[in-house]
Design brief:
By secondary structure, the protein is an all-alpha fold. The chain has one domain. The chain is about 60% helix and about 5% strand. The protein is built from seven helices and two strands; from the N terminus they run βαααααααβ. A two-stranded antiparallel sheet has the order 1-2. α2 runs antiparallel to α5 (about 105-135). Residues about 5-15 have low confidence and may be disordered.
């Protein structure tokens, strides 16, 4: 109290309501990859755009894998890669809205990161092989033989190469994983009372 008996105003430090979790590289690569996958799945025209978006995805996967070992705490695989039991336990709790909240990726989120990286790599890889076999173009053109195909018949569509069919199947599986990922993010956002989509934009989450 001061000499007049009144309580002196004191400044009390206020704890930050949020903390930075996702660094810029994680956020930018996440949204670039999401956009590239969506555009490439919707259309393969113009052809050059489809191909170059595939190359972009490959570069982003390589960068994200490297960042999983070299990046900050919550970007590293060691922070979120767990065993299947932890993933199952988390999902079982999530559907009852009783799962533990994680500042970084949850066990299920970590498993989805790995699954998507694998499937995106497989999809892009088969696309590059198909480009070499069908058109004799791309980075594998010198090591993958171009497949000789019968000439086009007006009004008829040539049957696709086997590798192209594999590529399309993998692309559809990848899209299914993306849909599951979005549903999981929505459910976790509701269960934990925070907007995880906004967090991947701003990089910040509730402390």
């Amino acid at each position: 109290m001061d000499v007049n008996g009144s309580m002196a105003a004191q400044s009390v430090p206020v704890k930050s309501a949020s903390v930075l979790v996702w660094d810029p590289l994680v956020r930018i690569s996440h949204w670039l990859m999401a956009a590239a996958i969506l555009i490439d799945w919707i259309t393969d025209e113009p052809r050059w755009m489809h191909v170059w978006l595939g190359y972009l995805v490959v570069a982003l996967v390589v960068l994200r894998v490297a960042w999983g070992f070299l990046g900050p705490e919550h970007a590293r695989f060691a922070d979120f890669v767990t065993g299947p039991r932890a993933v199952i336990d988390y999902l079982a709790g999530l559907i009852r809205f009783k799962s533990r909240r994680y500042l970084g990726h949850s066990p299920a989120g970590g498993a989805m990161v790995i699954a998507l990286l694998i499937m995106v790599s497989a999809t892009a890889g088969t696309g590059i092989i198909n480009l070499a076999q069908d058109e004799g173009a791309g980075p594998l053109a010198t090591v993958v033989a171009k497949v000789e195909r019968p000439p086009r018949v007006p009004g008829q569509r040539r049957p696709p190469l086997v590798i192209k069919q594999v590529h399309e199947i993998l692309a559809n599986v990848t899209l299914a994983l993306v849909i599951l990922h979005v549903c999981g993010v929505a459910l976790a956002s509701f269960a934990h009372g925070e907007n995880l989509i906004a967090a991947m934009i701003t990089g910040r989450k509730r402390a």
